[in-house]
Amino acid sequence: MIIKKILKRKNILKDLKIIFTDLDESLLKENKYYPKVLDNFIKELISKNYIIVALTSKTYTEVKKLYNKNNIKFSLSSENGSSFYIPKSKNNNDLTFKKVINKKAIKSNEIFRRLKILPVRFLSNITFIKDLSLDKQAEITKLKKNELIDFNNRDFSVSIIWNGSNSLLALFRKYLIKLNLQATFGGKMINVSGIHTKLDALIYFKKMYLKKFNINNCITISIGDSQNDVEILNYTDYSGMVIRKEKSKISLIKNYNVFISKSSAPEGWVELLTKINKEMERKNI
Length: 285
Fold this sequence. Notes:
Layout: E1 17-21, H1 35-47, E2 50-55, H2 60-70, E3 75-78, E4 83-87, E5 97-101, H3 108-116, H4 120-123, E6 126-128, H5 134-141, H6 148-152, E7 157-162, H7 166-178, E8 181-186, E9 189-194, H8 198-212, E10 219-224, H9 230-235, E11 238-241, E12 258-260, H10 267-282
Parallel strand pairs: 1-2, 1-10, 2-3, 10-11, 11-12
Antiparallel strand pairs: 3-4, 4-5, 6-7, 7-9, 8-9
């Protein structure tokens, strides 16, 4: 995907629009980017003064590889708001970023240390994903074996499987808070991290772009598909939910400017932003 410069300062007026998007099963399908579906549509969005920011539970190395392979240059936040990355290089072959670490983030080795000294009733019901065989890891994560190195290269989270009851899980999650940790669900696994979320990243990038372009406000749009995206979906001016047949529908507190796709990713991503763009044009935004 060829995107030279996302926006120039002189082109920014009062119509700056920022799209905060989840990656897995929102923009991507089965961990793949589909250029035939997305490239021209994204170019069109950028020509209309949209900025796109990826907010994901993926690791930085996972996203970096995805970006380099598809020539993507969006700002991003990895591991559920643990850190923020702003593109700074112009080299299409090896994109580099300025990195800002969320003050709430805790390094993975410290998280692991805290988990290893949990009470036995909790620790005995935890399986660390990196301790599983490659075949089992691939089955759980739905990744190829050669992708697992980047998945496990976590800076600010630890991935686990919970083997206990739901009632004990509720107690486990409460206990984690005492350790300044939280459990975030992602498919069949749980990511344990510091108490930060994608919303931290959204607020950081919004403030950054308002300051960069010397404006007071902008239109915010969020696209997601799971419970892990609820905070950002509730926060933004416009919210789009990409449907997933295998998952139950998510519910939001907000009841306005909410759009639900009929298609799954990546077509559902295009469908939602087309609807949202038309609605804003109808309102002369």
